[in-house]
Structures are given as structure tokens and as C-alpha cells.
Amino acid sequence: xxxxxxxxxxxxxxxxxxxxxxxxxxxxxxxxxxxxxxxxxxxxxxxxxxxxxxxxxxxxxxxxxxxxxxxxxxxxxxxxxxxxxxxxxxxxxxxxxxxxxxxxxxxxxxxxxxxxxxxxxxxxxxxxxxxxxxxxxxxxxxxxxxxxxxxxxxxxxxxxxxxxxxxxxxxxxxxxxxxxxxxxxxxxxxxxxxxxxxxxxxxxxxxxxxxxxxxxxxxxxxxxxxxxxxxxxxxxxxxxxxxxxxxxxxxxxxxxxxxxxxxxxxxxxxxxxxxxxxxxxxxxxxxxxxxxxxxxxxxxxxxxxxxxxxxxxxxxxxxxxxxxxxxxxxxxxxxxxxxxxxxxxxxxxxxxxxxxxxxxxxxxxxxxxxxxxxxxxxxxxxxxxxxxxxxxxxxxxxxxxxxxxxxxxx
Length: 410
Ligand SMILES: [Zn+2]
Hints:
22% strand
């Protein structure tokens, strides 16, 4: 009996030692039961890897910039490879527990370069000859996507036909991968909670849920899987008032036990001057989502995002900011994030790559918990608590620079 106890204690000790993230050491590998959210820093766009408690994997976006200016931070780790290659290498390393790493799901929040990549005559052709290796296609070709979710499949014509080179190339990628590698493309359907599910051990983690919240102006009501259309019938609206790409972004809520996380792509909540109020998509989204533990800033914290109602309603302890541009976040957004009038209690903001000029201009940005590095949100088995692990993005060392938490889930 004693020896059984000893073995049990030893095993528990080993698990803790293995799972422990310590500054200066390589980040601990993902463990079954843990929910990992990796916000990958490339200095060129948005990209995140999610590892669900049973090992099911999800990629959210894989972006790039058409050109870099002094407004942008340098490429991370450096400019010797395109962003897509760095992302693939980061994911391969992070999924090294899997002898054949692949992405069960990929989700493209909206059709902008910093979320899907760029296509020019210089973008290399895929060996298939069917499409060019823009960032998302490069990741999908190297790691294979099981199911691809976007806001436009299959006709890509809302609110107007999407015919630019990047979307055409993306569709060629989908077509080739569907025909030859079994990729399944679907339109993201707001309200549903069965479009992204655990694929390996769903019965083991019944408290896990991926809830589709919004896309294309259609928003979950928060009740069952019901949705409502937030935009008026566009036929009754002057074309000049039609929404741009950002407010059409996909948004979702991920829950694991008491832990809740929100991602809203580049949705907007503050209409540009003179534009109709229904351009505010954050308000109905926040009404459906409610309070969460952690969330990523909408639209990188740009001036048209993060309205007071949205901040006060989600009221997370942890905010993530995917950033590489001196224009993000903007001053008023930063003030709202800090406001104890909007919601009480402590909160931390973690940025992937804050531009030094932004810090010069916006007072108080020294209060950022972290201004640089891959951000890994690590939710413990069962979802009761979580940590934020910052990982060096200046090399492929995967070295932890700082660890925050644990924070109790609410
Ligand atoms: Zn963006």
C-alpha cells in the first residue's frame, strides 16, 4: 500500500515538474487536459494556435503585411524566412507530442492580409502549381487542415463579391486541398456550438465548449443557438454605408469549466464619423458573450474598437493584444482598458510586440504586463485556473521570459 502511495506521489511530482514553466527555461510541453492558446509573434500579422484539452488543434489566422515601414516592428525572430515558415516551425515544435502534427481546424476571421497573407507576383507558387504560398496557404500546405472555417464559403459574395487576388488564391488553395487532401471547408455559422468540437476524447471533457458568436452581421442571442441579424437589409442602405471587411469578422467564445475566452477578430464597436450606429457590432456581441476570464483586443486596439460597453461587459482579468504597428493600441482604447469605472478589479494587458514609438506617445503604457513575445495562455486541467507564459520571440529558443498567475477562473 505504502509503495502504491509512493508511486502515486512520485507520478504527481513528475507531472508538476514536467508541467512547470520557469523563466530562463524552455516552455513546458502541452499536457493532456490543458487548454493552450498561443498568440504567435511574427511582427507581420495575426496568428494563434489553440490546443484543446484532448489534443484537438485549431489555427486562428495566419497573416502577413504587404510591406514594412518604420511604423512596424521588425520581423520576429528575423527576416530570413517568411512569416508562414516561422509559424509552421513554431507549431511543429509546440505539437511535438504528436508524431504527425496537423491542424484539425483552421479558422480565418476575415479576409484581410494581416490575417491571411498577401499575394503578389513575387509570392512563391505551391509545388502543386494550383495556388501561391500566401501565409495561410503555406501553413495549410505544410501542416494540413482538417476543416477550414471562414465567413464566405462557398460563394464569397457577401456583402459584395470578394474578388481580390488574395481571396482568389485562397479559394484555389481550398479547392486543391479539398480535392486532394480531404480538407473540408464550411461557412462559420453564428450560434452553433457543434462546428468546432473535441475530436479525440470529447466524453472526457464535457465542460469544454466552442461557441460560434458572430459573423457577417449575424450575432448569437446568448439563448440556445438562436441568432439575429444586426445589420439592416443592405438593399435598403446606400452602398457607401455598407460595412467594410472588419465588422464582418468571425467571433467566438471558448469555455472550459469556469474558464471563458473571447476572440472577435477585427470587429468594430465605434462607427467612423458620420456612419450609422449599426456598424457597432461589439455591443450585440458583448450582450451574447457576457463576462470572460481572458480576451484578445478586437482590431488590435485600433480607434474604432473596444467600446465602453464591450470592455465593461467582458471585464476580463487578462487582455491579449496582437500588435506590430505603432498605431495600435490607440490612446482612448488604452484608457478604457485601464478604467476602474468601466469595471473594478485588477487586470493585465499582454502585447505580442509593442512599437517603441507607441510607448513614447501613450502615457501609462509602461503598465503593460508584457510588451513583447509569444503569449501562451495555459489553462489548467478542468479550467479552474490559468497562467500567462511569455516566450522569447527573438529566436527559436522557446525560452520562457516571464510567467504570470495563476489566476482563478471566475
Ligand atoms: Zn487585423
